[in-house]
Amino acid sequence: MMNNIVKKLFREHRLTETEYIELIKHYEETDLAKYLADEALRLRREIYGDAVYVRGLIEFTNICKNDCFYCGIRKSNPNAERYRLTKEEILDCCENGYHLGYRTFVLQGGEDGYYTDTRLSDIVRTIKDRFPDCAVTLSVGERSFESYRLLKEAGADRYLLRHETADAEHYRRLHPPELSWENRMRCLRDLKYLGYQVGAGFMVGSPYQTAECLAKDLVFLQEFRPEMVGIGPFIPHHDTQFADEPAGSAELTLFLLSVIRIMLPHVLLPATTALGTLSPVGRERGMLAGANVVMPNLSPVKNRKQYELYDNKICTGEEAAECRGCLENRMKSVGFRLVTDRGNYKP
Ligand code: SAH
User: Fold this and answer.
1) Order of strands, edge to edge, in the sheet holding 293-294?
2) In testing the pocket of ligand 1, which one of 170, 306, 309 has its CB within 8 Å of the most ligand atoms?
3) pTM, full prediction
4) Which residue pairs from 9-13 have beta carbons closer than 8 angstroms and sit at least 24 positions apart in sequence?
């Protein structure tokens, strides 16, 4: 049974929801994860060789108007110390990153009303002017079609917006009523329509998640075909209503990374900081499961601890250069090399 499902996944790069449920329910079966990881790694090597793409992550604001139940920087957390980087600080991060060999900058933040279309477009335009050989990725949540259009026009190349869950009912249990699954999906469609390289994704082991939810996530990804997929384990944050919920499983995250690589062989797939937080060699194991991207932190060290989406986040104390060196060694230890490259999707 498992054998037939796995063979079908290898051959057709797609399964039905029912088949994904079976696969997920058996993920701990002897040798299954290893078997999928070997195929994932083979595909990844065929397309991307041993290159690991690097994205310099700039967490430029932790001010947010939303109240996602799982997130440490949700607006109603009074203990979060709020900050917002100035344009000059953001440009300094890019400058620093450029010298370290980064050719993609990811501007990520809460939904902070200060960054109007005008202000954010100006920042994007300035980065693209100063670093014309670099890609700019935005990850600033839900905005209007017109806003996404203006930011694209300003030069943004890519957009990360995890769908969080493909099950509308599950979405409602993770978010307050002002946030809707329908709008999240609308945003993803708009971004794709506007020509961004789009990243979707979800947390593994978020509260109330079932194998059925995960199967829906996989079917959604296989239909939507994003260029990037960000998945990482859910990790509780002490100041949220999910403080006492268990963290997601690193093993299941690794298993799903392999499934996603096989399903979308060309996808840009990061081994996330959350995975590295849960397991000391999580990112290395992510590479061996089929990931091909890492996103080292480029934020000013003084603000790193303040961008606390979940507890015990790693890499909050080191300078950007140390982060780069550390990751370089980590990737080398499992046979991969960091490259100085925009790291575009290879169709
Ligand atoms: N405001 C932006 C950026 C969100 S932060 C947006 O809405 O897209 C990036 C991602 O961190 C989120 O999409 C979520 O999947 C993840 N995240 C948030 N809280 C988390 C937690 N407690 N554990 C693990 N991942 C979390």
Assistant:
1) 293-294, 51-54, 337-339
2) 309
3) 0.98
4) 9/36, 9/259, 9/262, 9/263, 10/39, 10/262, 13/222, 13/262, 13/263, 13/264, 13/265
Residues 144, 76: Cα–Cα separation, whole Å: 24
In this structure, are residues 131 and 100 in contact, taking their beta carbons and an 8 Å threshold?
A: no
Relative to the CA of 202, which ligand 1 atom is closest? 15
At 320 the pLDDT is 87
**pLDDT reading at 237 higher than 80:** yes
Q: Which structure tokens are listed for 58?
A: 């700039």
CB of 300 closer than 6 angstroms to any ligand 1 atom: no
Neighbours of 92 (CB within 10 A): 15
Residue among 70, 77, 240, 311 to mutate when testing ligand 1 (max atoms within 8 A of CB): 70
Helix ranges (H only) for the chain are 2-12, 17-25, 32-48, 87-99, 117-130, 145-153, 168-174, 181-193, 211-224, 250-263, 273-278, 282-288, 301-304, 320-333
> Which pair of structure tokens corresponds to residue 126?
């300035």
Is there an atom of ligand 1 within 6 Å of 77 CB?
no
